[in-house]
Every structure is written in structure tokens, then in C-alpha cells.
């Protein structure tokens, strides 16, 4: 499906990362999927995970301004009321009905937390824990108001998070269950390192889902 959306709201919630709220119209998606965004038909486009729950009447996406990016500065500078082109949805980074009955550990870096924002709000009864890696403390907790017992902020360049260090360092310290589902979303280094840690500790590969953010 391709349609034109309007930016309804925008706010900065992490270092260089904006939360955009978009008009959804009749667009349908499954939690965990992504869309392609562009400033208009025929222009450069890029994939962004949907961050909003499936039952919400608007769409949310997190967009990080890349210093040398061809598209992200244009998107981040777009004012409320601007029009974007949306294509999608796409992707298989989802939880089946059976998997939603298991505990889920979600591991993210930066805006890789986007699909988790959709999943946990689409499935209110989900038994989840989040490990989220950021360089510094951000306003991300204000976005969803994560319960403290379910969200651990790992700050790698400051001591103002719940854990001082990378998410992979925290992952090495916590107990893991072979019956849980493990979802990884973020930069490739984190994903490859986390997969190695999980498999070294006996987690079956079929229990691990990954989506790389470039």
C-alpha cells in the first residue's frame, strides 16, 4: 500500500532522535513491521519500524538524524503539517500467538527500540523485559512510560542510566531461559555480539529474532 501522510506531531526524545506522529488513514500493519518513508514519490526512501500499537489511530516512527545521511536530515527537519509518502508494511520481526505466551527479552540500541514500542503496547499481557542501549540518558522513558521493573537503560558513555555499560555487558550478567524468546534490534555489532552470547549460553537459534538497523 502507498499513501500520503501528514505529520501531526514531532518531539525529540533521544540524542538526535525525533518521535513523529503521522496520520494513519486506513493503513493496516502487524506489530513489528516497518514502512518505507520518503518526502515524495520518486524521492529517496528509507525503512523505519512502526513504533505505535496496532490499535492506535495514528502512526509513530522514530527517526535519528544521521550526520552524513541523505534522507534523515530532510525528514527530521520536516515541520508539522508536511506531507510524506508511506509504502508498506513489510517485515517478519513479529511474535506469533504461541510466542506471545512465552517470556520475551527485547534488546535494542538507539532507535532500535521502535518495534518494541509497537509490540508491547499491541499485546498488553506480554511478559517482557527490555535492555536498551544509549550513549547517554534520554527522554525515552517518557515516550511509553515503561515500568521500571521491565526496562533497563544501559548507558555506555555516562553513568546516568540503570546500568553503566553496553547492553551486551548487561546481557552477560542476567539469567536466561531456554524457553524465552529473544528479540534483537539495533546496530549490527550489538546483534552479532548478543547472538554469540545467547548461543554460547545454550539459547536455541530458533528462539532468537534479529533486525539490523543500518
UniProtKB/TrEMBL annotation:
Pfam families, per the entry: FAD_binding_6
Q: Which SUPFAM superfamilies match?
A: Ferredoxin reductase-like, C-terminal NADP-linked domain, Riboflavin synthase domain-like
Descriptive protein name? FAD-dependent oxidoreductase
Gene3D superfamilies, alphabetized: Nucleotide-binding domain of ferredoxin-NADP reductase (FNR) module, Translation factors
Instruction: Please give the CDD domains that the UniProt record associates with this protein.
Output: FNR_like
Ranges for domain FAD-binding FR-type? 1-96
Q: What is the lineage of its organism?
A: Bacteria, Pseudomonadati, Spirochaetota, Spirochaetia, Spirochaetales
State the species of origin.
Oceanispirochaeta crateris
Q: Which GO terms describe its molecular function?
A: oxidoreductase activity
